[in-house]
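As the next step, I selected for study a record pairing a protein sequence with its backbone structure tokens, which the following lines show:
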Amino acid sequence: MAALDSDECDVHLLAGLGRESMEIARRVLADAVASGNTLQVAESSLLVAKSAFLVGDHEAAAANAAAAATLFAAADREPWEALATYIEVRARAAGGDDQRPPDEEIGRLRDVAATLQRLGWLAEASDVRVLLARLAIAAGRIDEARSDLAAAAKARHRGTPAQRAEAWHATALLRLADGNRRGAKIAIGNGLRVIDRHRSTFGASELRATASVHGVALSQLGLRLALEHGRGTDVLAAAERWRAGALLSTIGATAPRPDATRELAELHQLESQLRAQLLEPASGEQAETAVARLRGGVEALERSVTRATRLAPGDPRSISARLDIAALRRRLGHRTLVEFVEVDDELCAVVVSSTRCRLVRLGAIEAVVVAIDHLMFALRRLVMAATDEQRAAPALHRLHIAVGDVNARLMEPLALAAGSSLVVIPPAGVAPVPWGLVAVRAGAGEITIAPSAAWWLAAARPSMRDTGGVVLVAGPDLDGAGDEIRRLAAEQPGSATLTGPDATTAAVLGAFSGADIVHVATHGTFRADNPMFSALALADGRLLVHDLETMVDPPRLVILTSCHAGLTGVHPGGELIGTATALLSVGVQAVIAPSIAIPDRATVSFATDLHRALRDGATPPAALARAVATAASSNDPLAVMAAASFQCIAASTFDAAALDVSVGAPTTL
């Protein structure tokens, strides 16, 4: 069993699934310690070290790798001792906690690289030589660095995709050391293509997103080179080369495996039973046992669904396309695109219009993060003061000050024309920004959010069907959901409604297919531990991200008035996983959803204003801008919260005229 668990852990490590591999590795280590088998303790400690490194816990990775190396040395297992030492070296370098003098550290790394080379760990030896070269360059020992990089570059065509990409990284650094910038850029592109091809072999969006981590170092090097010249077009091209590529390369539904489809159905059935059991007034040991059994079954099925969906085959042809900047300018028309770019500790913005592309340096990321944190704190205080008139006015005042501070750091330096219609590619490494309020403060017009400029340009596709009408859904246990849907039904005559016990997962998923607009008012949950199980609460259980990925004929516009519906898990490379991004990945052209939690009753009036604007023919971004402006100008704390929360993620060619909001008799699905 331990061997099988170790093999499963290795598979998760190769797929970039650090959380899952860590869970297995810790279990294997505990079993090994309990058995007293020293060699198994060493092997499982090494698995824990690899997993910790993958999730960014470099201190734990170094400690476990060092412990494994000591045990392997005692057992006279030199090859495995060398591998454990390699993991320790990488972890200490990544964590920046190695305090040895440069000469001493260079000597140690050279010994480690030589040992790895002698024992046949060729790709690992190349990794260490790249670390060596960086230290040597920092110490001014350029000739030594050139020698190490030349040796590391030989691994470009062997080892895992991550190791081949690292060898191309070494090649790029070597060419830079020789003054060959053009050759360095070619090497960066070659390395990213290795990871791109590797990523395309996965059918599961989760695996595509996690695989992107292996290209981050190369993409950051490319960004640094572009920033040195300071040309906006170069920085934009470099930023887009590795931004949300997994989402861009997979627009369209994921064909589910039969076993995954069956287990998803079983999961929904079991969750329905669990919900019914929890609503029963019965108590005592028997009831607790029944709940525990059902919860255990749900957890087991979640694991099974995860395994099944990860086995879906990819398409090697689905490599993400490069951004066509000329086409982007043509498509922008009257709009302005702002792409925020993080490089090391600096935040920049590339501002693109139909006529020019310019780079604006915004300064240290830390200052922006602090300003956004203050804004989010002000929003939370506003929520707490919403029902107290004496506290509400000061809370609103502090919020306006915080919005002004964020605007001063993010928008004012861009010198945008008043009333500009914006497409914003947010910085992936900072907290969600209430863009609606910031845009109002900046004097901007409508604002569209997109995961990348390439996605915004390429994602929208013309529908092959006639217009499909409006579907309105109210989930359970949400204060105000029923009132919201009734008011919207009056605003959207002819709309179909699903409320109460009729709003089941199967009925709602079926209603999604073929509709023009779907509006769902319900509780949303974001699963940070596994974003693929983020969900919308419905009458019989959860509508999961896994379910959304099976849609064949998705609606054009989805509006989610549920807290956390717009939240996403952010993976390195700007890869996003969550409810909203799952909808985008299967071809939904626009999603309007909150990116921060909001009180249940804050959305009723806001949603009504939004639908009125849509009925009048406004595009989703324009309709949202109208609703935000109305709410932001009020002194109602709940209305201001709604204005702060919602964002519109939309493709460039969204056709508002194609939306079917024709008047007719209300219907119930």
